[in-house]
Amino acid sequence: MATLPVFAAAANTSVTPLRVVSLNYCLDDQLQPYADQGVITLYPSRDHGARFEPILQFAPDLVLATPFTAHYRLRAFEQAHLEVVVLEEPNSVGQAAEVAFALHELVTAHLGADDREGITSGGDDAFSANNHAGFDVELREPSDVGAPLVNDTFMADGALSSEKALSPSGAADLSGPNSKPTALFYLANQWSFGTDTLWHDVTEHLGWTNLAAQQGSGLVSVSLEHLLLWQPDIVVMEVAEQSSPDLAHVNLRHPSFQRYIAHEQVQVVQLPRALSGCMAQQLPDVLNRLREATL
Q1: Contact, 161 vs 173, CB < 8 A?
Q2: Which SUPFAM superfamilies does the annotation name (predicted)?
Q3: What is the pLDDT of residues 252-292, one digit of tens each?
Q4: Which of 123, 152, 217, 243 pairs with 163 at a CA distance of 20 to 30 A?
């Protein structure tokens, strides 16, 4: 059983908080617990909007960015002699843990040994040297997972048998010990995540099969026809932020899609944008939400 650590901040430290600027809204939320407990003084991206002058006036000890931050902004801060660290965007659960650990080390480096003790507790083997973890999220191995929620039959080349009806009730029985639940993260504009993505690695850790992997790596196109043909046991969606019609979400409003996800054997998981849009930074919460919704 593997575990993924998330680092919590220590309360009542006797050291002056580190002044930290976040240049990414996902980092804002990841850093907030440290600010809440007095480890750092946080200037989040939602407050400064990446404007140069307010950030300089804040006089940060550390500026944290991601690969999505504009390079000209990073150069400007470096030329102003600010310490800028670009945190990687993980594409695996292991990398997410490594980045979380790196972030934890950056924002607690100014603390003395006594103060750092307040932010250490049990954790994964990868962190056993310093035993850092706020809490652990268990990741199931494939052997821990039971039969699929909706079973399916595939030909040797990966195509669905032509005998199958395009509804869960027509699903063939593949409830053997080696079968795994099939899952699809269905995004707006008929996109999903294929191989070499964090989502793909998440499905493997949960013991699921990522159906979009058939389409290739990275962000891949998945039509409604694909979804109905594949018949995923688990459909993950982002919670819509607006109720008004828009072309981006027309696939999610299609009657065929609505009928499919309404079937009692299909498990639907709706992730708020704060989780789906910042999966790497909120991975323990994402994993908890996925597991709780599919128990």
Answers
A1: no
A2: Helical backbone' metal receptor
A3: 878 899 999 999 999 999 999 889 999 999 999 999 999 99
A4: 217
